[in-house]
Amino acid sequence: MDRYQRQTMLPEIGEAGQQDLRAARVLVVGAGGLGSTVLPLLVGAGVGFIRLYDGDRVELHNLHRQTLFDMADIGEPKVSAARRALIQRNPDCEIDARAQVLSASLLPEALDSIDLVIDAADNFAITYQLSDACLLRSLPLVCASVLGRKGYVGGFCGGAPGYRALFPQLPTTAGNCSTAGVMGPAVAMLGALQAQIALSLLLKLTPSPLGCMIHCDFINWHLRQFRFDDAPEPEVPGIPFIDLPMLTADDCIVELRSREEAPVSVAEGVQRILPQQIADWQPPADQRIVLVCASGMRAAQAAERLQKRGFPRLALMAANSL
């Protein structure tokens, strides 16, 4: 029996749709919990090319939700273990596995010849970078985030509004799986929705999932959907994230973390200014100000204050994403 017989028998797919999937080129950012569900579903459906970025290694505490891996994979780069498992599932699919964190300077190469992007990193700094890049290139972007027993998934860019249209500013506080915990089935549900949205976009099914957001609450058992097709993009462009290769000798680099939190900063000669001191700090008028913290959230808040004071040359750096 043909591998794809059960989906090609659907009139909206057929042999023509299967050929579209075979020709598709997808970027997946993250091989963790979301990626562990997204990737096998894309490979199972016959997506021909997947470029995968993740800089982590498999750890024991990953296994309860990252079902692509097993005990034998512990200590191995996630992308290597993922590539092996995916090729075992479908050797006809090409997996371009890159064992590195996707950061700003790598985006042009990562997005080269890509048809669709899946953000499975569950990292705000990466999400904003991907959205800005995809909006500029009119590439569809499928984002998801999950914490505890709640999450959301949405289709952005590619003709729909970008992520900043719904979330113009980074959150002021945010937990993550390491600090707040998460249930494996909740992660798998959101990952499966990402895969379904991605396949629907590649097959050009209607109505389009671009401009659609789905909230999943597995505490109160609510699934709510809304459309944001007409959400306006922010009038003021978002402050960009950069990474180490994008620093210049003329930048004024401000480290917002204390020496206790970050004994070594991202570069030599940084200024150490705590977030509560930003209001009284007088920045140089002739330099770009690069604000550094762990996740980017404190940097974004400090940048907003400086922007309101009339300093437009700003950039953010999330040290945990470098």
TrEMBL record:
Q: Does the keyword Iron-sulfur apply?
A: no
Q: The Rhodanese domain covers which part of the protein?
A: 247-320
State the UniProt keywords alphabetically: Membrane, Transmembrane, Transmembrane helix
Q: Which domain of life is it from?
A: Bacteria
Query: Which Pfam families does its entry note?
Result: ThiF
InterPro entries named in the record = Rhodanese-like_dom, Rhodanese-like_dom_sf, ThiF/MoeB/HesA, ThiF_NAD_FAD-bd, Ubiquitin-activating_enz
Q: Which residues cross the membrane?
A: 26-53
Transmembrane helix among keywords:
yes
GO CC, sorted alphabetically, is: cytosol
A GO molecular function term, named singly, is: sulfotransferase activity
Name this protein carries in UniProt:
Thiamine biosynthesis protein ThiF
From what organism does this protein derive?
Answer: Pantoea conspicua
